Amino acid sequence: MGWWHSLWGSNTTDDPLQKLDPKLREYLEKESPVRYPTTAEQQQQQQQSQSPSPYPQKTEHGQQQPHESAVPKESQFQDGRYAHLWKNYRPLAEIEAETKSDQEKIMDVLEGYKERKSQIGKAALENCALEQVDWRSCMSNPNFTERFTMCRAQIKKFERCYNMQTRLLKSLGYLSTADRSPEVEEDIQMHADSMYHKFLQQEAEIEAAKTEGRPIPKFEPLLAKKPLVGIPAPEFELSLEQQQLLKTRLEKVDEIDRPAEEQAFRAELRAKAELDGRIRGIWNQQAEERKARQEAGQATTWDRVMNVVRGDNEKR
């Protein structure tokens, strides 16, 4: 009957003691130093090996092993393979940061500030995509009225959307910190777009109330006093010069746009204050390093020149 089992794939041969007499089998299991696993035991072992344990493994002392990878995130194999090759690994950004000069560090801070302003403009353009489509459609295939006015209504609609979206993004703290995930930044961008359309809806209701002679409805302010996310620097009182500049900027916009303009102005001041603080931190680190070299008797000519320049600036 061996051919029958070979056709149907029977696993009776997995247990070498299965065909023996029960008494002989019991005697062999008791006296034989080699223990043959039965079919039930093999199935149980396979199930235990295939099903992952829901509990973390414990060491001999009963402490749970943390599920931390032995290799950095740059490794393609996060299961711990080739961990000895990654033992002394350091990220390239960390090495470059140590080898950069002070001037390069300051330039990186300034470039980051400029990049933030550029990214805010790009996000505002993305939120105003429909207004851009209307403008381009008008320019490519205008009717008689649009040709006569040179698409003035579409241009004005796009400009207002771009300016308002920029104000909202600044007010909500878009790209205000460098250690925030892209998902959070995208949520802020979407929230700014939804706030803008809600603002347009409220404006339409106000215009309809004026046209129909009804009382003007009152709405809750869309912008809170604080940004959507944590601000990088605490609130501060505006100086007289800043108050005058804010007053001048508010006079140039419509009354309904002034709350957003004020919040955007304060957000710009916070960003500039953060930029100033980071640059001052680099300068202070330079001063400490020059002082350490001077105390060790290793001061250079450039250190003496910088001490004179910084001393004159502090007196001023």
SSE topology:
Layout: H1 2-8, H2 22-31, H3 39-50, H4 92-99, H5 102-127, H6 129-140, H7 144-149, H8 152-171, H9 182-212, H10 240-251, H11 258-295, H12 301-315
Helix pairs in contact: 5-8, 5-11, 6-8, 8-9, 8-11, 10-11
If you had to describe this structure to a student in words, what would you say it looks like?
Residues 16-33 have a biased composition (Basic and acidic residues). Residues 1-76 are annotated as: Disordered. Residues 42-52 have a biased composition (Low complexity). This is Autophagy protein. The structure is a single chain. With 316 residues, the protein is mostly helical. It has a domain at 101-215 and 239-288. The protein is built from twelve helices and no strands. Helix 6 (129-140) packs antiparallel against helix 8 (152-171) and helix 8 packs across helix 11 (258-295). It is flat and about 105 Å long.
Please provide a brief summary of the model.
By secondary structure, the protein is mainly α. It is 62% helix and 0% strand. Residues 16-33 have a biased composition (Basic and acidic residues).
